[in-house]
Amino acid sequence: MSSSFDHHVQTTISPHNGQAYHVETYPVSSDLDRTLESAAQSQKEWTKTTLDERIVKGRKFIENFSALANREAPATYDHGPLGHHNLAEELCNQMGRPTDQCWGEFRGFLQRASYMVDIAESCLSDITFSDNQPGFSRSIKRVPLGVIFVIAPWNYPYLVMINSVLPALIAGNAVILKPSPQTPLTAVRFKEALNNAGFPTDLIQVVHLSPPLTRYVVQHKLVDFVVFTGSVAGGKAIETAAVTADGFKGVGLELGGKDPAYVRADADLKDAVIQLVDGAMYNAGQSCCAIERIYVHESVYDNFVDEYVDETKKLILGDPTNKQTTIGPVISIASAERIRQQVSSAVQTGAKALIPENLYPKAEPGTAFVAPQVLVDVNHTMDVMKEETFGPIIGIQKVSSDAEAIELMNDSKYGLTASIWTKSLDDFSTLADQVQAGTIFLNRCDSLDPALAWTGIKNSGRGVSLSKFGYDQLTRAKSINMRINTT
Questions:
Q1: E strand or H helix at 73, and its extent?
Q2: Which side of the chain, N or C, has fewer Cβ within a 10 Å radius?
Q3: First vs last C-alpha separation in the chain
């Protein structure tokens, strides 16, 4: 029960009911050639526009999308016998998140879009020098890369797409956007709003592709850079395809995570519990920066675990189209079975599950519904503490010191985010310097600020999105060195 595809079509299956929701037909390679050629030609014309003109279109896009995602009077789309669905209902039916929670993704989408438009001028304007020698002038330009291929995931499709697509366009690039087969309509809606704001039709193009066709585009001579968000295995496949193509093609990779939290003895336990349950369980735990393992100082361990279990039991697992549901299915039956196996393996090797199975009767084998679970008596010999879960499961391990906590936090092949829960800013600063991750949080988690660089280390990927550094990934420096006076 997930999106399926053959050589010609892909079918999006709603995770909560197993019904087909949307079908797309794949292009053939000659169609892709024409798509890429038109994008490349459009990009050449696009570079003739001024940065100010592109920024104006960016602001118009934000206005357009705000209207589409207006919860009080949203736009709706005809899905035939399934009825008319607004953006939130479409997203819910494609990937299973409760409808009421989908509106939050649109707010984050617009927040990121607004910030990246606001900083575009300062990030993309020429750098000039005031200390030029007489008769000489120097500057550094930020120029577009050309055609950028963006491969988006299903878990937060709008949030991830906005990180690269809008900045790439404002920087002067063309974009070929491939959504996940699980959430194909998200890219379609994104493109519609961009085109309605004045971005040329051929400049931003949506393609639905099989794995072989995806490789074909990655290796295409007209693609200058690839942005991929997804699994480690998927990232390796994309990088291999890029490396084996002619030339030297750049790749930005945002991959998996096994993000840790450390709750110190002086932490505000009530706040930490609420935030860390949300950080682990929101979106059914399907976030690259979800909390997947928690280390708690022994002096507060028992109280923390008791409160964490009580808070977790408040979650309501069910049909994501129902208003009372707070946690929906995971993306597929296969994903659900993998998660259940990880929990079962941990229990068989000594872990203890604290959430009774009968509390969530909907989480039956053969469905995509997975019950939230809290595991204790865990250790780093168990996959649940080492391998990405991507589900509503958390392992909580007792530690006796900061040093032990840091050692365990860093004992991972991933390094996306980490969080430390303490009232001491000085201690936090000392510990944050020792943690191996792209982002370190104090008393919060699973949250992105568009002013900060979004980046990972180790198997969590490489490259940067958001912040002023996000524009650097989508452009290149071009130095201008002029000798003006030749007499």
A1: none
A2: C
A3: 75
340 within 8 A of 371, measured Cβ to Cβ:
no
Q: Tokens at residue 317, please? A: 């697992």
**What three-state secondary structure class fits 126?**
coil
Give the predicted TM-score (pTM) of the model: 0.96
Per-residue burial over 354-377, b = 16 or more CB atoms within 10 Å of its CB, e = otherwise: bbeeeebeebeeebbbbbbbbbbb
Contact 98, 89 (CB under 8 A): no
Residues whose CB is less than 8 angstroms from the CB of residue 391 and which lie 6 or more positions away in sequence, other chains included: 284, 285, 286, 330, 335, 336, 339, 342, 370
Distances (CA, A) of 485 to 134, 138, 482: 8, 13, 9
Percent of the chain with pLDDT over 90: 95
Q: What is the pLDDT of residues 234-290, one digit of tens each?
A: 999 999 999 999 999 999 999 999 999 999 999 999 999 999 999 999 999 999 999
| Residue 387 designated active-site | no
From 92, 102, 123, 288, active-site residue: 288
DSSP string, 364-409: -TTSS----EEEES--TTSGGGTS---SSEEEEEEESSHHHHHHHH
Give CA–CA dist 169/456, Å, rounded: 24
Which one from 254, 292, 311, 388 is the annotated catalytic residue?
254
Q: Is 254 part of the annotated catalytic residue set?
A: yes
The residue behind tokens 């991507």 is 390
User: Rounded to an integer, what distance in angstroms lies between the CA atom of residue 81 and that of residue 83?
Assistant: 5
